[in-house]
Write a structure and sequence with these properties.
The chain is α/β, with parallel strands linked by helices. It is built from 10 helices and 5 strands. A 5-stranded mixed sheet has the order 3-2-1-4-5.
């Protein structure tokens, strides 16, 4: 039954692939997905209207390009995975939540290091100030021009914060990451319709993560591909306020091998 429904769903899946390449924003993430015990990756790309899943052995920019296209016109919202660095896009937004978690880790690891604590506190203040501007805009407390001015101010603060090399290796790694992505930290202020985190993608992956814990992934690549197709249709239907059961039933009843009950 799973095989028959997935085969019927292939045209719809192909349409989702085309739509994600033309979307204005895509929230992305990946998680491990074993196939017969071999490590693979379950990729997600989507937004409030659709979710697309793909399972691949690799976790590189070629897979990301295959999903989003080689010249994606929209905004990619992701963590700092290097695979997205080589993907061309209209703009990029690095997940603020991930950066705040990195700051928390530093303060836990080095609570008595003045250099680390000063760097971490200043960075957290900058990031939270940016989130406050986003909140104020959504609550009509500031204008789009205020956001534009705030973006410039906060980018200057990041430049000033990252000017000095740090002696702590982990803090220095984060400093270098901020420099690398300095133009991708506050995109959500110039595009307020975009979220500052990729939490949406993480939430969309959660049902598959639960499935993986119960099933340990798939035994075959064909089964994994079917999972990607079915999850894409099911999650997209939910996002659009539709009952995924009705969608799957329509696919089943559309098969000439399966007849609808007569009574």
């Amino acid at each position: 039954m799973d095989k028959k429904v997935a085969e019927k769903a292939e045209p719809l899946y192909s349409e989702l692939e085309k739509k994600i390449k033309k979307s204005s924003v895509s929230y992305t993430d990946e998680t491990g997905w074993p196939i017969n015990g071999d490590p693979h990756w379950l990729w997600h790309a989507g937004n409030k209207d659709l979710s697309l899943y793909k399972i691949d052995k690799h976790r590189n920019h070629q897979v990301a390009e295959g999903i989003l296209g080689k010249n994606y016109k929209g905004i990619i919202v992701s963590d700092c995975l290097g695979a997205y660095n080589l993907v061309k896009a209209g703009a990029k937004q690095k997940c603020i939540a991930h950066l705040l978690r990195d700051v928390d880790k530093l303060t836990v690891l080095y609570p008595n290091n003045p250099e680390v604590i000063a760097f971490s506190v200043n960075l957290e203040n900058i990031l939270r100030e940016a989130l406050d501007y986003k909140y104020d805009y959504e609550n009509n407390k500031c204008t789009i021009n205020d956001l534009k001015n705030a973006k410039e101010k906060l980018e200057n603060k990041i430049v000033a914060l990252t000017n000095v090399k740090l002696t702590n290796k982990k803090a220095e790694a984060l400093r270098k990451r901020l420099i690398q992505h300095k133009n991708e930290l506050f995109t959500f202020l110039s595009h307020p319709e975009v979220e500052p985190t990729n939490n949406f993608a993480e939430r969309q992956l959660r049902p598959s993560v639960i499935s993986r814990k119960l099933s340990f992934g798939n035994k075959t690549k064909e089964g994994a591909d079917r999972h990607a197709v079915m999850m894409s249709l099911i999650q997209t239907a939910k996002l659009q306020g539709k009952d995924p059961k009705e969608l799957l039933l329509s696919l089943i009843l559309g098969s000439p091998e399966i007849r609808a009950p007569t009574s």
